[in-house]
Automatic annotation (TrEMBL):
UniProt subcellular location: Cell membrane
Organism this protein belongs to: Myceligenerans xiligouense
Region (Disordered): 1-24
Family matches, as InterPro entries: AAA+_ATPase, ABC1_TM_dom, ABC1_TM_sf, ABC_transporter-like_ATP-bd, ABC_transporter-like_CS, P-loop_NTPase, Type_1_exporter
The protein's name: ATP-binding cassette subfamily B protein
Keyword RNA-binding belongs to the record: no
Domain ABC transporter: from-to ranges: 367-601
Keywords linked to the UniProt accession: ATP-binding, Cell membrane, Membrane, Nucleotide-binding, Transmembrane, Transmembrane helix, Transport
Coiled coil ranges: none
Residues spanning the membrane: 47-68, 88-108, 161-183, 189-208, 274-295, 301-318
Domain ABC transmembrane type-1 span(s) in chain numbering: 49-333
An MF annotation (GO) of this entry: ATP binding
Domain of life per record: Bacteria
Topology in membrane: Multi-pass membrane protein
Length: 607
């Protein structure tokens, strides 16, 4: 991300890959997660309040049970057999409490599940929208595997948290609180025993928190790396197989997989000590409460019924701790996931929309670069200061050694990146002042890979202008010479690409992307020509398509073929980000400089 001075600011998603953060960063990351959570829950405030009422009612009703049992033992049983009234009343109250508790908890679970699912959907949408919104700079540094793991495994961890426990755990925590309060009111001394049991439990919890936080971050980081490695290998499978890299990539994958396994084992190790430790503390507390209470019953200072209620309360207090401990795992994992997702969501596009956009009412397509300076992030300067004017309608071919900065110029003119210094102007307007929909309509980039989306051929062409009619789509295909082969596909324009029968060759793919650009009809076209060599008829076809595409518009072509350079009005030879030769192809050949040499080499390669 570039600050106004051109230096790089740290990004929010930058800490993604670290397992231990310093205290301040850790706090900032947590604050960011909590803010996101608040933001997600805010629209559900009213229904959340309703859920809180339901769960509170259910917990209070549950806590009444042991107290009613103590009343039955100490008050109602001694009145028998003469007076069955108290026992019947207590029995009735017990039943009523059970019904209230059951109905309220059922309703609470349904309401809470609906909130959880809506929050998840909202988060999924936000992640998707955000990844589409972020600038190319972000995508070039944040690998697609990492984005995939944000959208898949991180959201899955949050789903597990919300589906698999949070709702129950909130109810359990409330029951525990009510139980502790109820017990203390019933018999303060036993309340004290319970509180004493909580002291070692609290220390154990602190130990667990400290260790598991690091372990869970580590687990998620390795899991993301595993996905990155897999996605990278699969997207580059051709290169992997062509260069015999299978064994090396497998070794790398194994190494990451082992680290992931070790991270998981560490978590199990921590849990293996935490859960039994808590259980032990709970049971010891029950024994102490029983011993102390039993002693007082013998002394005659405690009623038997109250002792029974005390034991029921203490047991009930510790019972959900196991569940909460297990839940803590899901919580840790989800908290780590939320940290990463919130980092992605907090990321701002580096290419900023203008506050007061300037329109281009009658675009002509004149391009001007004024002292354009550029460097990627903290990297070396790619363009030291480029001055260039391209009159409307001119076709300019950019040639030059690899790394000279040709693609960089293309990315600056199309505003996928902003220049670090200087300005890029279209018809005299700084492109930073043009709203992106207007800019994208007028300046279109056709990239090397000519990406085809799943869908029909017609749909792929219509990407250039979604409201185009079938006639316009076919006219565009005809104009660039794609109509012939499209008609020969099994279902013509309705053939699904990327499916059996819909496979298109590299040249045909380029023609489709030309048709797409033709339909979009931009004033300025930037074309990164594919380097893949086509057979001669294929090349001629593409060349003819290109010529019709270029007519009547300004074009910058990163040229890799002689035939392309020949149809250009002007050739710019670039070296280390500077124009070293500028002229028509014929002039440059006559001048006998670098272009002449390149041209000779191209001519040679044809014979
Ligand atoms: N996303 C990026 N992040 C950092 N550096 C980059 C990035 N893209 C390109 N560069 C660097 O910028 C310089 C210019 O690259 P550019 O892609 O513009 O060259 P090019 O002339 O188009 O080369 P080629 O013909 O090989 O495509 C190179 O040194 C390259 O390493």
């Amino acid at each position: 991300m570039s600050a106004p001075d051109g230096r790089r600011r740290p990004t929010n998603a930058e800490h993604d890959d670290e397992t231990s953060l310093d205290r301040a960063t850790s706090r900032a990351v947590r604050r960011r997660s909590i803010a996101l959570l608040g933001d997600l829950l805010r629209p559900h405030a009213r229904i959340l309040a309703w859920a809180a009422v339901l769960v509170t009612a259910s917990s209070a009703a549950q806590v009444a049970g042991p107290w009613l049992v103590s009343l039955a033992i100490d008050k109602a049983l001694p009145a028998l057999p003469g007076d069955v009234g108290p026992l019947a009343a207590i029995g009735g109250a017990y039943l009523a409490a059970a019904v209230v508790a059951g109905v309220a908890i059922g309703a609470y679970r349904r309401v809470a599940a609906r909130i959880a699912q809506n929050v998840l959907l909202d988060l999924r949408r936000r992640v998707f929208r955000q990844t589409q919104r972020l600038s190319l700079e972000f995508h070039e540094s944040y690998t697609s595997g990492r984005i995939i793991s944000r959208q898949t495994s991180d959201l899955e961890a949050l789903r597990e948290l919300l589906d698999g426990g949070l709702v129950g755990v909130i109810a359990s925590v409330l029951v525990m609180t009510f139980t502790a309060v109820g017990l203390t009111i019933l018999d303060p001394l036993s309340g004290l025993v319970l509180m004493t049991g909580l002291v070692p439990a609290w220390f154990l919890l602190r130990w667990f928190r400290k260790h598991s936080q690091v372990a869970y971050r580590e687990q998620r980081t390795w899991s993301a790396r595993l996905i990155v490695k897999f996605v990278e290998t699969m997207t580059g499978i051709r290169a992997v197989q062509a260069f015999n890299r299978e064994a090396t990539t497998e070794r790398d994958y194994d190494r990451i997989g082992s680290a992931y396994r070790d991270a998981n084992l560490r978590i199990f190790g921590i849990n293996g000590r935490f859960a039994p430790g808590l259980l032990l503390i709970g049971n010891v507390t029950v024994v102490v409460a029983l011993a102390a209470g039993g002693w007082r019953v013998l002394e005659g200072t405690l009623a038997v019924g109250v002792l029974v209620a005390v034991l029921l309360y203490v047991k009930r207090f510790f019972a959900p701790i196991q569940q909460i401990a297990m839940f803590y795992n899901a919580f840790q994992s989800a908290a780590a996931a939320l940290e990463k997702v919130s980092g992605l969501l907090a990321e701002e596009p580096t290419v900023v929309e203008p506050a007061e956009p300037v329109d281009l009412p009658a675009p002509r397509g004149e391009l001007r670069l004024e002292h354009v300076r550029f460097a990627y992030g903290d990297g070396p300067v790619v363009l030291p200061g480029l001055d260039l004017t391209i009159p409307a309608g001119q076709t300019v071919a950019l040639v030059g050694t690899t790394g000279a900065g040709k693609s960089t110029i293309a990315k600056l003119v199309t505003r996928f990146y902003d220049a670090t210094g200087g300005r890029v102007l279209v018809d005299g307007v700084d492109i930073r002042d043009i709203a992106s929909p207007v800019l994208r309509r007028n300046v279109v980039m056709v990239t090397q890979e000519s990406y085809l989306f799943s869908g029909s051929v017609a749909e792929n062409i219509a990407l250039g202008r979604p409201d185009a009619t079938r006639e316009e789509i076919e006219a565009a295909a005809r104009a660039v010479g794609a109509h012939g082969f499209v008609e020969n596909l099994p279902d013509g324009y309705d053939t699904e690409v990327n499916k059996r029968g819909g496979r298109v060759s590299a040249g045909q793919r380029q023609l489709l992307s030309f048709a797409r650009a033709f339909l979009a009809d931009p004033t300025v076209l930037v074309l990164d020509e594919a380097t893949s060599s086509l057979d001669l008829p294929g090349e001629r076809l593409v060349q003819r398509g290109l010529q019709s595409l270029l007519a009547d518009r300004t074009a910058i072509i990163i040229a890799h073929r002689l035939s392309t350079v020949e149809i250009a009005d002007r050739v710019l030879v670039l070296e280390h980000g500077e124009v070293v030769e500028d002229g028509s192809p014929d002039e440059l050949v006559d001048r006998g400089g670098r272009f002449a040499a390149l041209n000779a080499a191209w001519q040679d390669s044809l014979v």
